[in-house]
């Protein structure tokens, strides 16, 4: 298939699993005797040259006005858990989901979709925003923008930074920031905007600010001086949604400081209840480090010369039926070849809880964590200004560090951008400091364990949030007396077996992402209790969980289910390693025995091609299950194992066969024929798009999914990106790099900006948490392992190993790893950009298994004593003592 043909047919859609409620009841297809035949082609018809191109480093994804690719773009542009603010394709901000709206999705509406057999109503949690993506032009709740006034050769030109005013606008998608270039070849200047969220991995204080920034740079490309004014404006958004005539007046007031100029926007209430509305609060609009012209009441449309003039008063007020818009202008002169810049910052403060949480979530009533740090948006802005250089520059440094890699740029984007979920209204941090999340925006509450355990990004970017959630929630309010972890905290009363196992694995990851053993030491008794509960669900003692319990497909399945059993084996292995570190030899042996038996007996769940669901001896196939079908998660436990360095858990060849079967039977270069015949699923992939189907019946067995088929069957026919990402991560780890890249690129293409918002992978509602599994594919592409308390780090790149470069995050710092191979020498280096990195043991992989003659280690120019051991291609280097690498220091290893 030609590349263009594949992109047309194979650009993918994402879908997701949900939890807890009968979301599909009423439109899933009931089982009938003539169940549709499997119709996914074995030969995928993919062009070899196209597959080869997926390995190329390339350039950042760019979306252009001239290709009609800007209208859906909505990059999360605010701080973690501070609402949903989007930066659009032309740089303007939109959606403004900062007002504590408890409606489902970023755009709570229903649409209609014809599934090939009939027209169905699709809700936000069913994929409405996938079928008909939200348009930025329909969600510009506040007036906001930036304009440039350019004077040259006696001519003055005013242009707004929106797509209507330019020949072309080019958006470069590199989350957490995007770069927007504005093209008009008649002008003597080049104009670029770079904006997004303050985002510094490991530092939540810097990354949780309810604020966004936009840097504007204008370069003079002529041979004469150019006079320039850069102006930004923002509407007073206080009580924007709920205010009614008589409730009060909006007020803008100047707040001039040494470091910045700003305008604070507030609401003067004439009725007390106006102060308690969900949108009651303040906003602040500022420019950093500039001599500026401030206007508290500007008329931005159309932008004229008067707009750039100074206000005659320090404050302005207007009734609610009038828009009150503030502007700040920055004038300057640009010499030929030079640039002029300005940095605008917008902050907000709306400290009200969601009404839908108040009844069952007492902590939510006290508001949000950012309000414990700042009393209003003015204080937020003062903090930003005091620390602007540090926060701003480290945000830029992270962006540069992450994308300065030999890995393909499109791959870096897709595997990382789902961390933006944390910077939407999908998550909260309550005043108590507790992190909390939905599954998708305002849908399916309780930081659901069987969904959130798929995500790998948060634990690597902000491990302190994950550690606190494990302690405060999973091992705290959610833990039962018997060690079971309630899978939705206050919103449920029972554990989910996959959530239980996944949480144990996350506990091990959180330990690894710690600087020392304190997290493990402080929680070991509760961890052991949670593990014991999981082990007890194996009633017949064969190492294969067989207790009917809730799972992420919203059902209680009977029998021994490969993906659940395997996940529990992985969790038991993690528990064994933690017990060994704790010196709890008896419990370590218990876990080791479970892992041994389970790993051996997994072969009993292998049907010759893939791993299956063995029915309960008594109940048989009465209930819905995956049975002898090809299920997407069948070797999920081994996938998790590669994320935390657990090694091989069961037979390698059978595992590879299972992954090949998923490719053979479940990957469709065009899902159209499949979803047309296998109806009842939600539209997370549409005809013409590629995807990995959740569960297929490749041998057309009768009653393949059981005798009593229920509404959950619809899930089997969907493409849910979180599951697809975990399979891609596993394929990458097992050497199936072609398949891993094709699958990831399929998801990336499904979310191409010409079709829908690239930053919003949808399952049950928008910005679905499970999609953060994408970072797992980045981890396995690097062959990365890390154990902070031990000072251990490993890299074994899955491809392009001869010249490899990639970012890493550790417990206390982040930076860049590089390796080169050639001429009988391998060079490896760790360069710290932020914080510090403590290392003692480093594992790398040679090109071949030939004997290593010598290993030399240097910290800067200082030679570090070290010894090494070799096992085939693997070389482990042990430093005589732990060393600490500081920013801009490099640890270099020559093999």
From TrEMBL:
<dbReference type="InterPro" id="IPR008928">
    <property type="entry name" value="6-hairpin_glycosidase_sf"/>
</dbReference>
<dbReference type="Pfam" id="PF04685">
    <property type="entry name" value="DUF608"/>
</dbReference>
<keyword id="KW-0378">Hydrolase</keyword>
<dbReference type="Pfam" id="PF12215">
    <property type="entry name" value="Glyco_hydr_116N"/>
</dbReference>
<feature type="domain" description="Glycosyl-hydrolase family 116 catalytic region">
    <location>
        <begin position="498"/>
        <end position="775"/>
    </location>
</feature>
<dbReference type="InterPro" id="IPR024462">
    <property type="entry name" value="GH116_N"/>
</dbReference>
<dbReference type="GO" id="GO:0016787">
    <property type="term" value="F:hydrolase activity"/>
</dbReference>
<feature type="domain" description="Glycosyl-hydrolase family 116 N-terminal">
    <location>
        <begin position="74"/>
        <end position="390"/>
    </location>
</feature>
<protein>
    <submittedName>
        <fullName>GH116 family glycosyl hydrolase</fullName>
    </submittedName>
</protein>
<dbReference type="InterPro" id="IPR006775">
    <property type="entry name" value="GH116_catalytic"/>
</dbReference>
<dbReference type="InterPro" id="IPR052566">
    <property type="entry name" value="Non-lysos_glucosylceramidase"/>
</dbReference>
<dbReference type="InterPro" id="IPR012341">
    <property type="entry name" value="6hp_glycosidase-like_sf"/>
</dbReference>
